[in-house]
Each structure stands twice: as structure tokens, then as C-alpha cells.
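LuxR C-terminal-related transcriptional regulator: C-alpha cells wanted.
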Amino acid sequence: MSNDYNKLSEYWKTKYSDEISKYRSYQVTEDFKQMAAMFAPGNSYYYVINFHDFQLEHISDSVIEFAGKPKEKVQLEDLLKLAIREELGRIELKEKVVNDFFTRFLDRDKLREYKLIYSYKMKDASGKIRSMLHQTTVMSTAENGMPEHVFSVHTDISHLRISSCNDVSFVSLKGEKSYFNVNTDNGYFDPSFCEYENKDLLDRLSEREVQIIKLLANGKSAAEIAKEFNLSEHTIKTHRRNILNKSNCSNTAELVAKCVTGGVLSISLN
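Answer:
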């Protein structure tokens, strides 16, 4: 593994595995396999990872479409090396913010109540560049309260018009405070780093604006959207300009990226 990939691997080891004193396997039941398959069908893969030694204890058959090898031969290193080199610096900053959120900011008894979301780009085994959405939640904790077993889903979202995004979102699974579009440039978590601190991006947008974003994300032009809504092209362009202003985005690709991580676009895992 190159030094760039080693750096990220060693960071995870220092921050997680060195804090977990003994190995405990995760009991993957048939019910869990069925549930996981429901959340990650189609163009995606999932795995359960043990943070004690970063071994993959369960991984979906679909990983072969990305890693180019059957699941029995896939290690974490193989998945890590799929990320394109230009993304590694961004991923490291995101992972620092993730670690800070889960190990310092969040109460230990709430670790299983949040999932994290961020996007990245990878090159699959065939050389194809893909935009991926990474979603993770803690399945169990060690005796000291550290994350021990983690469930991750990686979904191909290349069909969306999306650019690289430095944001990470932490979404409550229990209806409590979520933290959307957290800037990761500083490498640690602070609620004030949420780009839309006073009002989440979704709350800033009207229902019609959200509908337009969904169509823009799927590559529809202003003329095509206008026809669908029976509006003028000028009206749609005005909506798009207002949406960009509300989201502090300079173009559609940036807008879609922030909407994916910010809860505006609900990604169907298929």
C-alpha cells in the first residue's frame, strides 16, 4: 500500500483499534443479511467491519463489481485503494471530523443513534471513475464505549450531476438534532461548522425548488423541467438562480453534492 493510503490506515488504527483491547466477532444473523440487502440492493456494496483489527466480518457479494474480486478475497486495504489518490486528503479530513464527532462530541450512549454521510470518488477495478455515497452507522460498542462494529454502505451515485464535496453530515436516527453539511477543512467537529447552521438546507427550500433540484440532479435541462411543470424556461432558470443563492452554491454540480449530503435528496440505494 502506498504511503498515502498507509497514512489513512494508520490514522484509523490509532484512533480506533488501539482503543479496543480485545476482539469480539459480530454475530451476523440471517435477519441482518436480509435487512442489509434491502438497504443496499443494486449498484452498491456493504460490509460490517470490526474496529479492533479492521477485519471485514461480513461483506456483500456485490463488492465484486467494484473491487474486481470475490468477497472472500476482499480486505479493507482493497476497498481503501479504490479511492482515487486526489480524494485521499479530503477523506482524511472527513474521517478526522467523523472521529471527533463520535468520540468527543457525542455522548457514548448515543453512538448507535446516528449515521454519517459523505461522498467521494473512486476508480473501480475496471478503471471506471465512480461517484460514491458513503453511509455508516455504529452497530455495537466496546466496553469503554468506543465504536466496535460498524455497518457501511457505499452506493454508486454517478448518475447524479455531482462534484466533489468536502461536507459530512450526521443524521439522527431517533429524530434528535442532525448536523448537515459540516465543513471539514479544520479536521474537527464543531456545530458552528454546519454551513446552514441556523436553518438546514432542506428548510431553506420550497417544495417546488426541491422538485426542481431532483430533476437537475438527473440531468434534466431547464427547458425539459419547464415542459414537465408547464412553466416557462425563464421561470425555471429564475428558480435555479434562487436555489443557488439560498444554498451558497456556484453551479448545479456543487448544489447536487450538497443536497445529497445535506438531506435534500434522499438517495435510493439501487
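The longest helix spans residues 88-105. Strands lie at 44-50, 55-59, 114-123, 129-141, 147-156, 168-172, 179-182.

Cheers.
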